[in-house]
Specification:
The chain is an alpha/beta fold and about 210 residues long. It has 2 domains: about 120 residues, Conserved hypothetical protein from pyrococcus furiosus pfu- 392566-001, ParB domain; about 70 residues, Arc Repressor Mutant, subunit A (Orthogonal Bundle), CATH 1.10.10.2830. It is about 50% helix and about 10% strand. It has 9 helices and 5 strands.
């Protein structure tokens, strides 16, 4: 008798757990998925310096996500070619934007709420990543400069002016960021972290 009651209680618990999981799925907006963050690879255009993930701002974001049980605002990813649902040897998705939310969910052991864009190209990925970053925790002067340099060196944009137009920045701001990224290593190394370098110091440091 007792064993039947225990078995029945366990079955009820499992049913409630499954029901709660279904309810959570229904809460997702159209086009959103819950993805294991271990299945998401950083894009080669990733622009966050590793030090960004130990900042106070990141720790506060992580705490907020933990309190909410997950990220409320979805990240965006695109599928990696050849990595279907049965792909188990590596990531299935490439991150478009939302590296801090993805990292926080990874550290917390939570699935990450994501929008999957099947058709986004490299240039659109870069533009969306840059614009989304400015709407949240903007990149440091160093992170911006290094990112712009890489995009230009790899031919993603024909010129710094064109890059500025596409990401919605004044050309002078892009030029300042590029100047920060071009600082000699001995100057950059004098800082605790390159993310501490500020735009207003760029000209003076460049002449140092």
């Amino acid at each position: 008798m007792l064993s039947r009651m225990i078995s029945g209680a366990q079955a009820d618990t499992e049913a409630v757990t499954k029901l709660n999981a279904e309810i959570e799925k229904l809460k997702l907006q159209v086009g959103e998925q819950l993805i294991d963050p271990r299945q998401i690879a950083l894009t080669r255009w990733a622009d966050r310096h590793p030090d960004s993930f130990s900042s106070q701002a990141f720790l506060e974001l992580k705490q907020e996500i933990e309190s909410a049980g997950g990220n409320v605002q979805p990240i965006k990813v695109r599928p990696i070619r050849g990595a279907g649902a049965d792909h188990v040897d590596g990531p299935r998705f490439e991150l478009v934007y939302g590296s801090r939310r993805t990292r926080a969910c990874l550290e917390l052991g939570l699935p990450v709420r994501a929008v999957v864009d099947e058709n986004i190209d490299d240039q659109s990925l870069y533009v969306q990543m840059q614009r989304e970053n400015r709407g949240r925790a903007n990149l440091s002067a160093w992170e911006q400069g290094v990112s712009y340099h890489k995009a230009l060196n790899e031919g993603l944009f024909p010129s710094a002016r064109r890059l500025a137009e596409q990401i919605g920045l004044d050309h002078s701001n892009v030029a300042k960021a590029l100047r920060v990224a071009e600082l000699p290593q001995e100057i950059v190394g004098a800082f605790r972290s390159p993310v501490d370098i500020q735009f207003r110091w760029a000209v003076a440091l460049d002449k140092a």
